[in-house]
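Bug #77: duplicate submission created two jobs. Keeping one. Sequence:
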Amino acid sequence: MNEIIIDSITKQFTGKKVLQGVSLSFSAGHRYALLGENGAGKSTLSRIISGSLAADSGRVSLKGTPAQFRTPHDAQEAGIAMVHQTPSLADHLTVLENIILGSEPQFPFGIVHKAAAVSRITALMDRWHLTLNLKSRVSDLTAGQRFHTALLAALYKNPWFLILDEPSANLSEAERDTLYATIAAETSRNDNPLAVLFITHSISEALANADETIILRRGCISGCWMKGDQDATEKAITTAIFGDEKDMKKGIRPVEITTGSAPTDGGENSAPDVPLFNLTDVSVHPADFPNLYNLTFSVPRGSFTAIAGLKESGLSTLENLLTGFCTAKHTGRLEFCGTEQPALTPQILRSSGVGIVASDKTYRSSNPDLTVRDLLVSHWGHEAEILAETGIKATLDDSAATLSGGMLQKLILTRELAHNPRALILANPSYGLDVASVQALKETLTGAVAAGITIVVLTVVKDTLYQAADFRWQLESGVVTRDA
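Kept job's structure:
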């Protein structure tokens, strides 16, 4: 039986111990969930197992034989593949070319046998219930489609052990359910079953979809539960992640807001009774996103407004519309600060003091090829101060690709708030954050409203942020209604 055992693994970065003697085993035919607070060492551990990072000490053995993975290729040769939270794809290539890159089937004389590749990929898409245009360029894909491309690239290498870092972060609810149902089927096959390790912040997601739930805290294993264990409760797992209530409160670090710091643009448009947004019978029918129909709602100045809905209900379209990224023309009347906008753009929003935290934090609000310093370049000369405010363990010269999803989220939010915006639009801001970080975010946003900043949250879940809003709306099948 395929099995990998890691024994006493340690890893340290710039004086910080990330992993401290971690020992675990993973066997084919089982599903594993790995949870932990932001910065607990989850991604570091998975990168060591998948060969993209070397441990400082400890041993890895495969089917009882010592193994050493110096590169991801070494791990892939041993049947281990990983889909990273930020997939490394070649944007200028097609979906097909990305999937087969490095594993191209060939005719004699090195000619790529594309028909054979397409046939095999099509079979994988059918088996995993995926839909992708293999001819599309990766640069044109959504975050969810990028994940599916990276997943197919991993599956194409025929692994027995699949590692997924935050797999549901950019998927709709239906896509998430399909993914976990397929994982259950693939790990329970009679012939060549997979082993799957998925990293998540969702306790309910872990308990529902894993045979074994593992907790990392400060680089150490702090808890492990098998499916069906009576003591596998949300409270017990939360304690294993954060410690007791006192420890959890220490991790709640809201971004400081200076009262009264939000700028105004003067004149008629700064009047407090003029909404930030006012939509009347707005409809939009983009080619690649769900439609929106006859939207009528407003976002009062200085309020906390939240809109909840699934991506397939049009939430991604609404995000693009309100943040100026919608390329399709809308009908109806869309007013921003009292002025009708036939085509709202990011430039109009930015010049009016609106900050944006996109749902695609990896490629729209940042870029994995940039350093932390690059991401903070709009605060030239004050980058170190902004980084210190986030509380994350990183340096200005660290690559954005090395940051966990939660760390990147904190960095982007702090950067946007440091501009003292008049308004802030956040899409799925709590996804990828642990419980303590979500509480800190809630306190940050309510503090921002108290300072006169208008907050707009678009979310797929009616979580604590949604409940904290002054005005709540629901988006279903492209139609928005007021939530009582």
